Every structure is written in structure tokens, then in C-alpha cells.
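Might you be able to consider the sequence and fold that I enclose below?
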Amino acid sequence: MVSTKPPSGMRDYLPEAVYKRRYVIEVIERVFQRYGFHPLETPAMEHLSTLLGKYGEEGDQLIFRILHRGERLTRALAKVHPEVADLAELGLRYDLTVPLARVVAQYGHALPRIFKRYQIQPVWRADRPAKGRFREFYQCDVDIVGTSSLLAEVEVLNAVSEVLGELGFQRFTIALNHRVLLRSMLEAAGVAAEQEEAALVAIDKLDKIGPAGVEAELRARGLSAAVATRLLAMIGGEAGTDNTERLKVLRDLLPAAPAQAALADLERLLVLTADAPAGPHLRLTPALARGLSYYTGPIFEILCEELRSSLGGGGRYDNLIGMFSGKQVPAVGFSLGLERLLLLMEAEQMFPPLRLTAQVMVCALPDTPLAPVIALATRLRRAGIRADLYPEQSRIGRQLAAADAQGIPYALIVGPDELAHQAYTLKHLRSGEQQTLDEAGLIAVLQQA
């Protein structure tokens, strides 16, 4: 027998789940549009040349590659030792940032010099499924392209914070760091240049595997015990201090000019957001690494007390678009993980009452002419009423039971006599109360309800 389950790490969404997803997406879009961001959509597939080399060593391994088809695949498989490049040249979208960079490089002449965009689409990763982690999931990205001003960081941080606030989140933290500061810490700890990327990948797992796990991974990646110890002391030794104290400690530890400039940027971000939506949630976090290799400046990640995982993150990536366009285009962005938002909102019962059903089920009795019943249902819908028309002229008990099972509050009973007198029976299913109303009264009651 063929399995009816979806592939591992992917899910079907039944109506109630879809309503909840759409509610969250509508809130996200409303806030992003309020901040002046415009929508963008890109294809599910990208050239592997577009995707590879942008996400670091581990990220590249998680890209779903799409096999050639037909004769081209047959020829590739006929080789004695076919390589990956022989089998595929396309991959499923891994995130929404690299496609944005490609779009800006392709259409930059037609876009505003400073382009503010949001994008809400699925992405795919060949990852191991776990709670809150899927192979197919939606990202909700907001980016500003074309300026190196820190006001761009302020805008995306505030927009995301306002989204979370409108969804009902209060106890969340936005961890804040700087890629230049990270490199300065690596250098001060004695990490060789060729080991930087490996060290960043390990550091990025601190919240998942703890200091001992990170130290073990650093050692496994070739760093000496002394270097690993110094690095861990630097990134995790000030967990109990506030932002001002942490800035002071890091200024004393890292006197080099690049580190001092990065710290100045972080301090200015904290000042500019002090009285804005993001301000109360920002926390300087030296251990934050963000494994994606394209970040160049401030980086950030949302952490929530109720979910021991990230709700999203982002940062500045001033060199990524230049990989496609041949010229440097500064950019900064933030990505929210829709699936994890939904998971947490469900667990914490954060959804408001949603209109999941029709307001009224139109029930045609046996031997009732159907054309006038359909016309009545049409007039109700044109009046803004969500009206479901039961598709069978079965006994009234079956129709009322179907309406009740779907949570539809009212049943409109229409038979030959009702049509003849244009007076209709409206039954409230929970209370059992019935009213006889003309069409104007019927519309008025349902609109008020």
C-alpha cells in the first residue's frame, strides 16, 4: 500500500492550521508595509552556482539538489564515477537572502537606490527533522538594500520587534553582535585565519551544545586547547552583565581599531533603539556567531524563553550582492521563522478567536426549487455574509448536524413555503432559538452577529 504520509520533515496543513498561518502572515505583512517595505517573490529553484558558497561548509551540504531529467540524467549516470555537478545544476531555495541578492543584481537598474523589501515564501533544507525544525518551512524576510547607514539596522530591528509585539510576544530577547568583533575575538584568542570559519561554525552552536560541546568541536576542528579555552572565556565570560558593562569589558579586551569601530556601531544601535520597539529586547551577546558566511557587520538573533531555539535572525551583508553584480551594494536584513512562531503561539494559546467557518449554512429542504435558493445565498454573500450552501437536499436533521459539526452558528432553513412567502427560518444552533425573518431582516441579523 502506498504511504499517505507527507515526506519526512514536511507537513500537510488542514483548514484550521491554514487560517492560523494566514493570520500570522497578515500581521507580518501589515507591519512591514507600515514601515515602507514592498513585497517580492522569487522562484523555488535557483541555479546551484547561485546557492553554493554562500552558506558556509555545513549550509552547502543542506541544499536540496534537483536531478537532471531524461537523457541528460541517463548520460550522467552512465559515467563510471559521476560527480554531483554531473547530476544537478539546480537546487531548491535555501533562504530568501541569496535570491534577493540575485534579484538586485539582475534588476538593480529598475529598483529604487535604497530598496526596502519583504518576502514570505517557503525554503527547503536537507536537515534532520526535529521539534520546530522542518525540511520545508516558510521564512518571513525584511531587508534594506543600498545603504550602509545604521538606520537600516534600526528599521529592520524595530519592524521585527513590532511584529512580535502585535502577535503577543513579550518575553523575547534580540541577541546582538558584530561580525568584525567576532573576527577580532578570534584573532585575540589566537585562531589562525584559515581556521576562522570552522571556529565560527562551532561558536554558533553554543546555545545548543554548551561550552563543553563547543570546546570539543573546536578541538576536533584543529584548534589547540589553549586557544579554545581563551576563545570561550572571551565569548561567554560576561553573561551576567548588562549592555553598558559588556561594552566596557570588550573595549578593554580588544583595543584594536576594527574592534573599537564595531563596538561603536553596536553602542550607537543601542542608543538609537532605546525608545523604539526593539530597545527593551536588545542584548549584546559576544557568543552570537550566525553561521552564514556572508555577514559582514552587526548580526542579530531572536531568542524566546518558551522555545529553546531561535525564532529568527539576520544581520548586515555588504558583500553578498557584489558576488552577483561585480560591485559592492550594502544591505541588511532580518528573517523570521514562521513555523517556530506558529509552534510557540499554539503551545502558549496566543491566537485570538479566528473566523474559521461560515456564519450560516443555507439548508434547502427536499422538493425545494434550487435556483431561488442559490440566488438567496448569492445575495447573502454579496451583503458580506459568509454563507455555506449544503450541497444535498437531504433531511433537515442531517443538514443541521453538518452545520453544527463545522461550528457554523446559524442554519437558514429554506423550503417551498419560505420561498412562497419570502419569510425564512433562521435557527441558532447552540441555543436552538428560531426566528422567522424577511430577507432584509435576515441580512441585518447575520451582519450584526
User: Anything to note?
Assistant: The chain has four domains: 1-43+93-171+305-356, 45-92, 177-281, 360-448. The mean pLDDT is 90. The two ends are 48 Å apart (CA to CA).
